[in-house]
Amino acid sequence: MPPTINDMPVNILEKICSKLSDDYREKYRFILRNVCQSFRRHVDSWTPKIEEISIFSNFGRITVEFASTEYLYDHENLTVDDLISVLKFPNVKFEKLEIGEKSEEFLENFLLKIESLNLKIHVETVELNNSGREIDILKFCENPEILKIDNSKKIPIEEIIKNFSRKIPKITLKYDKLNATEATEIVRNENSNLFYRTTIWSIAV
After folding, report:
1. Among 56, 61, 164, 203, which residue's beta carbon has the most beta carbons within 10 A?
2. Residue 64: strand pairing partners
3. What is the residue extent of each domain of the chain?
């Protein structure tokens, strides 16, 4: 049987890739890992140099930004697989993980995959659009320092503080609009480090 691309030696692959650019591991990581199984095994051994990950999924299309480079996906399984290939590294700490608009089905599959692998995501800042289960990602985040929530759905302040203030040093809540009653609720909160900035209430605990 003649050799195939799967049989290409790793050193040859690296030599070819080095001709693409100096930062080929960052630029072509997700292209190369989906070429064939042998490429995937090798690429997945590269420690990611990615500081921020943003995920948006809606209307059957999923957009993921890895370090400001945008990737569009039509298939949930492929998206989850690419995400896990980066998030699985226990010694890598990301600056930001953001989950914006999302499809419930995609989010469910993503969370189940993380749980099945018992992953712990090391990340400094988590940003969430609090409209559903995306808040559950916090169960898999290892000691995040900052939590930012778009609270336009108006989850009660007490509920958020009760669930997360002891685990996360700083919580920022964002509102599209805030009426007098809701503003009073925030001001009456016992936390003395509450402050207001434009449409954002921040709670440092």
Report:
1. 203
2. 55, 71
3. 1-46, 50-204
